[in-house]
Amino acid sequence: MDVTPLLSHPSAGAIVAYRAGRAIAAGEFLADTAQLAERLPRAEHVLNACVDRYQFAVGLAACLTTGRVSLLPSTHTPQLIKQLAELVPDAVCLTDEPCCDIDLPRVYFPGSASGQGRPRAALAFRVPRIPCAQTAAIVFTSGTTGAPLPYRKTWGRLARCVRDGAQVLGLDNGRPHTLIGTVPPQHMYGFESTVLLALQSGNSFGAERPFFPADIASVIAATPRPRALITTPVHLRALLAAGLELPPVDLIVSATAPLAAELAREAEERFAARLLEIYGSTETGQIALRRTRESHAWKLWPGVRLHADDGRVYAHGGHVEQMTPMCDLLEIIGEDEFELRGRTADLVNVAGKRSSFGYLNSQLNAIPGVLDGAFFLRESNGAGVTGIVRLAAAVVAPGLTVASLMECLRHRIDPVFLPRPLLLVDRLPRNATGKLPLEALELLTDRYLGSPEGESGASR
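The structure assignment produced for this chain is given below.
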């Protein structure tokens, strides 16, 4: 039976994580894992909702060492939790928050406000070995184009993905970095790049998940070097725009959406570090890398290949579990290279004309005074007619009016793509990785419109 160690750290004293400046060694991590494993109920499926990244990692390890499956949706909306409970009726929730309101039987992390911690017994340093074929996690798509969908991930393929990732990122050179993540560990990118990557490459990670620019800068400054910032275009853009003095880092990694070359160049200059961009999906995991300021082309992970068939591109090989259709429009330009041309779900057809959400969003966000904005499709039920899908937009633009925004858009895009309605909002309902789940946009629209019949007053 093929097995892969839970940790690649060579000794009990090797550092796995930092929390509030305190180093946590591999021996302590394994002791915490064993303690939590004793507390877990008999359920096979555990929703790991721990906010603290270290406690999340301990929860993951406790599940792996006892044959349980971690459930990792990136959001915990009531609708998603209901879907999850229907998928796996025995699911329980592991949490480190005393006010957790997730509607599942709850298990509190030892030492949290609602848990009862016990002293950890000293353990010999024996790293558990996990069967490669064991299902480690069920991960979920983000829900940006509909309901989140579940995907099972085996331990062996997950481990191979991040070990290959350490190689292409230059994090396997024996000089341990600390990974500072602005993304939650429940999201596929955060799961792979801030937790699994550290565990499988001898690096360490920060327990915190800073969100606001000042907090990100503070956590970076408090983390020993060498250090890597694992972030997203949304977080990076806000951080650079905040006007803060930014501590140096040794590597920047970005994912979840394509990064503009201008933003990548600014980030490299401000942080005095290389910026590498990862391409992947929930379905495939991470499969490609590029240095954004140098090339539009993406280079595939070791062993991963693309195959075009009947107008669709598929990923296979390496750590990819099976032949997987890609949701993006990819142009294969070499055996291990491709360029990204957009998303298959990104295309917009109105009155016989075609555009893309990527293009429309870029034009909207280029208007002076727009802080954030996005186009989306919504079903209109107004005027007694149901089932009409319309192009809408939500915009954060203090000081601008709907009329002025519409006038600017008329000069930038074909009039058939002008949004109806256009909503001026205080903020967009982005999730922790900067994405906009369709459900959240629909709720935002309903709240601002008041009711479907009130649509005529939306563009005010």
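Interim note for the steering committee: The longest strand covers residues 372-380. The chain has two domains: 3-342, 351-457.
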